[in-house]
Design a protein that fits this description.
This protein has 69 residues and is α+β, with helices and mostly antiparallel strands. The protein has helices at residues 2-8, 12-24, 55-68; strands spanning 37-43, 46-52. Helix 1 (2-8) packs antiparallel against helix 2.
Length: 69
């Protein structure tokens, strides 16, 4: 939004500086204690669940899948 305002005002240097800052900012902080990513891969009758997060969550999901199956 600030970048668009700078472009509309004709201040291309400010717009470029904002764009550079945006490109350096991570979309997510992987060191955040609340960061969790769960991936699911299925092929025929096999599946893999990949978890980037706390081990307790992985154990909980494992137990839930085990009881479901």
């Amino acid at each position: 939004m600030r970048r668009m305002r700078a472009i509309k005002a004709g201040n291309m240097e400010k717009a470029a500086a904002i764009q550079k800052l945006l490109q350096q900012t991570r979309a997510s902080d992987m060191m955040d204690p609340n960061y969790v990513r769960v991936r699911y891969l299925r092929h025929a009758d096999d599946f893999i669940i990949g978890i980037s997060g706390p081990k307790a969550l992985a154990v909980k999901i494992h137990d839930q899948v085990k009881s479901f199956l």
